[in-house]
Specification:
The complex is a heterodimer. The two termini of chain A are 35 Å apart. In chain A, helix 1 packs across helix 10 and helix 3 crosses helix 10. Chain A contains eleven helices and 22 strands. In chain A, strand 9 and strand 10 form a beta hairpin. In chain A, the strands form four sheets. In chain A, strands 4, 5, 6, 13, 14, 15, 16, 17, 18, 19 and 20 form an eleven-stranded mixed β-sheet that branches. Chain A has a six-stranded mixed β-sheet with strand order 8-2-1-12-22-21, with helices on both faces. Chain A has a three-stranded antiparallel β-sheet with strand order 9-10-11, with no helix packed on it. Chain B is an alpha/beta fold. Chain B has three domains: 205 residues, 3-Layer(bba) Sandwich (FAD/NAD(P)-binding domain); 138 residues, FAD/NAD(P)-binding domain (3-Layer(bba) Sandwich), CATH 3.50.50; 69 residues, Arc Repressor Mutant, subunit A (Orthogonal Bundle), CATH 1.10.10. In chain B, a hairpin with a 4-residue loop joins strand 21 and strand 22. In chain B, helix 1 packs parallel to helix 4, helix 11 packs antiparallel against helix 12 and helix 14 packs across helix 16. Classes of the chains: A alpha+beta, B alpha/beta. Chains A and B meet through helix 7, helix 9 and strand 19 of A and strand 5, helix 15, strand 23 and helix 18 of B. Chain B: Keywords: Oxidoreductase. Chain B: GO terms for molecular function: oxidoreductase activity. Chain B: This is FAD/NAD(P)-binding oxidoreductase. Chain B: InterPro entries: BFD-like_2Fe2S-bd_dom_sf, FAD/NAD-bd_sf, FAD/NAD-binding_dom, Metab_Enz_Cyan_OpOx_G3PDH, Opine_Oxase_asu/HCN_bsu, SoxA_A3.
Chain lengths: 375, 486
Amino acid sequence: MSSVFGGGAPDVIVIGAGIHGCSTALHCAKRGLKVVVIEKDHAGRHSSGVNAGGVRQLARHVAEIPLSAYSMELWHRIEDLVDDDCGFTSDGQVLVAEDEAEYDSFRARVAELNSLGFSHEELIDARELRRLVPAVAESCPGGIVSRRDGAALPFKTTQAFRRKAEILGVRFCEGVRVTGIQAEGSSWMVSTDAGAIRAANVVNAAGAWADRTAADLGEPVPLEVIAPMLMITARVEHFIKPVVILRSRKLSFKQFSNGTVLIGGGYLGRALRDQNITVLDWAKLAENAKTVWDLFPIMRGAAIVRAWAGIEGRMPDDLPVFGKSRIHKGIFHQFGFSAHGFQLGPGAGAVMAELIATGNTNTPINGLGIERFTA
Amino acid sequence: MKTIKDVASLSECYDLLIIGAGPAGMVAAATGAEQGLSTLLIDENPAPGGQIYRGITTTPVAAKETLGADYWRGTDLVHALTASDAVYAPETTVWSVGPAAEGTSDPGRMEVGVSVGGAARLIQARQVIAATGALERPFPIPGWTLPGVMTAGGAQIALKTSGLVPDGRVVVAGSGPLLYLLTAQLRAAGATISVMLDTTPLENWGRAIRHASDFLRSPYLGKGLKLLLGAERGMRIVRGVTAISANGDSQVKSVRFRHGSKEEELPCDVLLLHQGVVPNINLANAVGCALDWDEDQLTWVPQTDDWYETSVKGFAIAGDGAGIGGAESAALRGRIAALGAGHRLGRLSANDRDQRAAPVRAELMRASRGRRFLDVLYRPAKAFRIPKADDTIVCRCEEVTAGKLRETVALGVTGPNQMKSFLRCGMGPCQGRLCGLTVTELIADARGVPPTEVGGYRLRPPIKPITLGELAALPKTPAAIKAVER
């Protein structure tokens, strides 16, 4: 049982070194637990490393808001947590209404959030919208802003969590693939292509591959493997600070301090998860470009220099699977973040570590459990 | 040959699509058309020829001896292309090649994004041959980003296309047969080149001599001797140069160099650098072809079979893009690749294909003779591939230095793709097409592991930038329109 996993039996095995696996490992280590992380590629290889880097509380499903709020507190002192600024900047995120009907629905949304006690989303009129996003098309009547939101550099962030976790004693086994998992007495035996390892607790943070581990455990879930596409432009003159998103048409839009502009919105390419590759769908990227063309005329001549996609797992209700296994003691799930899990990483890791160490958490996570699929 | 000037005139699908109209591409196109395949040849330049025969139908350099007999041999290839039924799309870029949507009848079918005159379109091809040639190996020395310092290949392009010759005191530096050829061409065209700094490592001779017998029987021998003898006339050649830097504030003013134990500094207005060419694998990389590290040529080379098909079905690479072999070899490999594609399309039986290819392969064997000697002899020195000085720039677009890269390796960053996220190297307008080799070798050197373990940048489309406006205006493909109608 020594070999690639290093010496000593761990308390926790984390499967998957994305932002979630790395964060959970780090927070477990802070609680004094011994952790081994098993990753089939390298940390941040898939969606954690290549996503849009949005750090967003804006426009989230109510079930996720507590986890997201907890995470946001950690983001604003991320350097204390991982000794790295993770490229985090906080210039807000703005959800733009494209017409009056949409603006009315935004008004209703903010009122509902307020009644639930959440105040991070703020309705703004056309004037404030223009002040925050001067280049936006004249026709947009207003929007919602979440002022503490922002963006970070995803790969840098995931690596920072990994590095800090390692400093705190977590062992990372990269290039090692989990092949199965079985109960053995009161603990779990995780088999890999580099041998087997045992621990009392196992966290399934395997992203787009997590359904396989869940199925092995008798908890099959309807996870869809998706490949959200992104593209980035060459430098253009600086014209926008906050991240801008749309709802009816798909768009997320961010300009970096160096002038390059990241364009996304969740258009999907094809994911071939067994080959670790994605295939872009240019017809859909053209739609994505058309939205930018309409909303930001200033961008029409910008050169697209790169387009890519990451491999991600999506649940049918677009909510993550987060919490204890429904049937097994010592098994925890943390996957299916459905293309909006990056911001949740720091907080979700802290809550997961709390669950593992104490059996409970004060952060409401009801509505996110695996039982909604397997019960 | 039919020439196309706008995207609307392109067909929805071609049997064979060839990218690049150098020797390999021109011959592949003629060979494809000769088999009755609907063949499209796409090229970025306004006229065929590629780099080696660049401007062959348009060059203002009329005196035949300036560019030399080897250059004018390209005329035959252009004639064969012009006489064929291939469709030729000049001034056209290919910005994406990927598998066509699932559900089409032939599995190797590709979707190709093309752009002409500011308008983009997606078309399909049943087989693709990339004949994207070679590019000059990066030559990162202190001061190489100063105005006045350029690649010798760049100077040659200016000469072939516009008859331009660099002004003032010109110093050429580097290694390899092309350096001598370019120098001879520029001098014949009237450039004042007073000094050549030859960086070929003297110890390479010992290793190369083992491969000399083939070289002595090859056509390279005669050409090489002629160039060497010519170079000795009226020009100082400094051999065994082990360090070079370009100096100046806003413009190169002097070049400093070391040979043996001596340091010298010479005033200069133009410094031309060249240390050989490497396969241009940018397209192959973005398409996802498996690449191998070639320790002799110190570069990535795509894996190909006997017909130059890569690990990606339906996607072949002909010419220098599949390994440096020179113009003559490229043309022959273009023919073999097109015969292979014809067979995969069911146009030629295996027997027919093999018979037609047999004499071409024999020629190829002859044309490749002596190549190994040149590879070993002109293998560039480490000092000119992996900059020692920490402040030497490696990634020109994002101004990332060698020192910064080494520091970041020490943080635990193990490969070029992770490095991008930390330093933005390879993320500027050129997307790592120019610094890729240097970054791979530098990381490998700093980690003390072979380049294969480090890997290269994973390049992503668009292979050439397209504007947001072009992409937004992309016409709907018939398949997409049908999908909506259903």
